Amino acid sequence: MEEKELPYVLTDTIGGPHGVYLEHMEFMKKYFNLVAMKEFPENQKYLGEKIKAIYIWWQKPAVNRELLQSLPNLKIIANFGAGVDHLDLKLISSFGVKVTNTPLAVSNATADLGMALMLASSRRLVEGCQITVSPDTEQFAADWLGEDVTGATLGIIGMGRIGYKVAKRAKAFDMKILYHNRNRRKEEEEQAVGACFCEKMEDLLQQSDFVMLVVNLTPQTHKLIGKRELELMKPTATLINICRGPVIDQDALVEALQNKVIKAAALDVTYPEPLPRDHPLLKLKNIIITPHIGTATKQARWLMMKSIVENIFSALNGLPIPNEVFP
Amino acid sequence: MGDQELPGVLILGVGGVEGVLENHVGLLKKNFHLITMKEFLENKKELSEKIKSIFIFECRPTIDRGLLESLPNLKVIANSGVGVDHLDLKLISTFGVKVTNTPQAVSDSTADTGMALMLASARRLVEGCQIAVAPDTEHFAVDWLGVEVTGATLGIIGMGSIGYKVAKRAKAFDMKILYHNRNRRKEEEEQAVGAIYCKKMEDLLQQSDFVMLVVNLTPQTHKLIGKRELELMKPTATLINISRGAVVDQDALVEALQNKVIRAAALDVTYPEPLPRNHSLLKLKNIIITPHIGTATVQATYMMTEEAITNMLAVLNGLPIPSEVCLK
């Protein structure tokens, strides 16, 4: 039967509030047979040999030595999303298995969310919406003000694909753009978005009205922003995080926000997600937190799925792999 | 006293929820003898002849025939903000008084507000913030999605200074930009922001994913968007209003949102402001409303006062007036 010839791909869950989207299944069915983890232990022997790829969806399934050992024909682990900090790249590589991510598919939606958070925070949008519907509201106060985004200084830490798209958008708001990155971008790229390189992150922190974090989470970027960095920021500055929670020392952030060391924060990511319901970050007035929605659009998720299909197809057919991630 | 030789400017008051912002008073006092409404009412005899200008902040003080009649030397009413729909221009002109507004000072902040509302609505930001803090949130559902702004089609109705700045910002999001305006813009201006003119508003309504209203409120634009226009919009489209509440037929909007004729709305303006606490718009899930904060920034409000002062001084000194509002 033709169906048996399509490769088997393992994923965590299919359907429901946490699973691979049923709307995506029709497209994927043309390329492979998707098998959910719950089917796996029952048919371990049979399926174990057939599974050539794992489709990682929301950091699941957890890829450990045991799983890797039970899949002798595994060729590729395809991650849904750009961040692969949840994967032990060295371990996986020791089994001769490739890893891919979906950096292009996430970039527009994530850059858009960075801009949305910066505007919402600066203009006090969430607070404003609460005032509009509050039963006690009788009048709109004339002395209730936010701050302009237009003309302010944005410091982008991490100028990869997403960071660069943020810069492009911010330029249209006549923002002054500073950036800090492992490597400096080419001059034409800098000029196209009017971005000034800050070799020292400290310089960027001291001059920015908005600091936006757009780095990968690696051992080097873990707690990149701590007490010292927050104190270097202007007391009128806002910290925006659209990459990974652990890039910020959360305890230091709580303290900085409580003591008005910085003006405000806007986070799409925390650790863990969600935060425990009694976490101090949830009680502060000068913070907005969104539930990790950087890529939460129909279009972005569709593109991410297609990218996964392309990555898996290429790996299994000996073609150049578009988005391989190396340890 | 030197202060008395400066022309008098009438304001409602200083500070609090409706007065001129305290840190703008210095700007006014540099060039004017500042007279509050309370002071004027207590001393009409002496002060009425000194008042040469009125500085309107947050639509106050209210200008009526009685006030105009009591100010024989009034030359100019300077509005803080660009919209003057709260002023009876005909009445004021019969007294030979000029009216000015502040189009420059408002444009960036208002354009930013339009973008903020579009992004917040599309990405369900306010709802998301509620989920992040809700006591019953245990997991973030992965099938919870918004719609993309990048690459979508934005239809701008009203392509004046503010509308044009919206277009410039939207272009950076690779949006396809359509616009409808009384007059078509020059080709170079269109090309600079990649905007395509729609002579018929219907064409814009039918093709847009986001419709943003950026017109003045005039008799012609009153209820510009009603039942018919909402039905012409895509069922997946979002209506954004950063102009004046009365440009939208609110009852028609309530119905359209309830019946999912359009996907959502994001309003910075309504009529009245604020809405009555039991108004249907406040109960809908597919709407976000901000409390008329289009120019509510430290920077914009300061620039508005500066621009108003420049206008007042120009009138009083017989110089060309930067932004006079003329009767059409």
TrEMBL record, chain A:
Cellular component GO terms, alphabetical: cytosol
Signal in keyword set: no
InterPro entries, sorted: D-isomer_2-hydroxyacid_DH, D-isomer_2_OHA_DH_cat_dom, D-isomer_DH_CS1, D-isomer_DH_NAD-bd, NAD(P)-bd_dom_sf
Family note: Belongs to the D-isomer specific 2-hydroxyacid dehydrogenase family.
Residue intervals of the D-isomer specific 2-hydroxyacid dehydrogenase catalytic domain: 25-325
Name of this protein: Glyoxylate reductase/hydroxypyruvate reductase
GO molecular function terms listed in the Swiss-Prot or TrEMBL record: glyoxylate reductase (NADPH) activity; hydroxypyruvate reductase [NAD(P)H] activity; NAD binding
Keywords: Oxidoreductase
Domain D-isomer specific 2-hydroxyacid dehydrogenase NAD-binding: residue ranges: 115-294
Pfam families linked: 2-Hacid_dh, 2-Hacid_dh_C
UniProt keyword annotation of Oxidoreductase present: yes
TrEMBL record, chain B:
Gene Ontology MF terms in the entry: glyoxylate reductase (NADPH) activity; hydroxypyruvate reductase [NAD(P)H] activity; NAD binding
SUPFAM superfamilies recorded: Formate/glycerate dehydrogenase catalytic domain-like, NAD(P)-binding Rossmann-fold domains
Keyword Oxidoreductase: yes
One of the record's GO cellular component terms: cytosol
Gene3D superfamilies in the cross-refs: NAD(P)-binding Rossmann-like Domain (3.40.50.720)
Record keywords, A-Z: Oxidoreductase
Entry-linked InterPro entries: D-isomer_2-hydroxyacid_DH, D-isomer_2_OHA_DH_cat_dom, D-isomer_DH_CS1, D-isomer_DH_NAD-bd, NAD(P)-bd_dom_sf
Domain D-isomer specific 2-hydroxyacid dehydrogenase catalytic: 22-325
Domain called D-isomer specific 2-hydroxyacid dehydrogenase NAD-binding: residue spans: 115-294
Keyword Transcription recorded: no
Family: Belongs to the D-isomer specific 2-hydroxyacid dehydrogenase family.
Protein name: Glyoxylate reductase/hydroxypyruvate reductase
Species per Swiss-Prot/TrEMBL record: Crocodylus porosus
Lineage summary: Eukaryota, Metazoa, Chordata, Craniata, Vertebrata
